[in-house]
Amino acid sequence: MPAPKVLAFAGSLRKDSFNKKLARVAADAVRAAGGEVTLIDLKDFPMPLYDGDIESSEGIPPNAKKFKELMLAHEALLISSPEYNTSITGVLKNTIDWASRAEKGEPPLACFDRKVAALLSASPGALGGIRSLLTIRSILSNIRVLVIPEQQALPKAHEAFGPDGKLLDAKVQAGLETVARRLVAVTAALARPA
Predict the structure, then answer these.
(1) What is the pTM of this model?
(2) Largest CB tally within 10 Å, which of 104, 114, 133, 172?
(3) Residue 72 CA: distances (Å) to CA of 90, 111, 135
(4) C-alpha to C-alpha distance for 194 and 184, rounded to whole angstroms
């Protein structure tokens, strides 16, 4: 059976984002667990704010189409999200909103239907951005994504990474590996013929 394909990204545009660092470490953990990972940066897919008038007059923007194509080519999502004002970032919500829009002849929520997702967060704060994960879980669960219960929040993220970009705390690394293994196992199980 082919390795489950996982699309990994952070819900941040900042170059030195802690969540981009966490997504990279998590992508390595998914590979070690037997998954195939495509790690992307949302900065490479700039999209206008979702506007129904833009969609009606111009269709889905080119970068939203490219992002949707990537989603359709993968069975699972690995998302590392910052917490902005106890919720998710505008860029992550906007990306989800554009990806949820159907092209002509495409079934509703084609990019999300039957996907499996794992959620991570990193923050300099004591809670590690965990409050954002509740919002993402709610959004994705309501658009046909199976979000695994395992998740990882990384507090004090400004102290968590070594110069090589790896996590310094072995317990945090082990937690991340648990999330990665479960994401790969659930995705592989759902891909098997009934």
Answers:
(1) 0.95
(2) 133
(3) 22, 5, 23
(4) 18
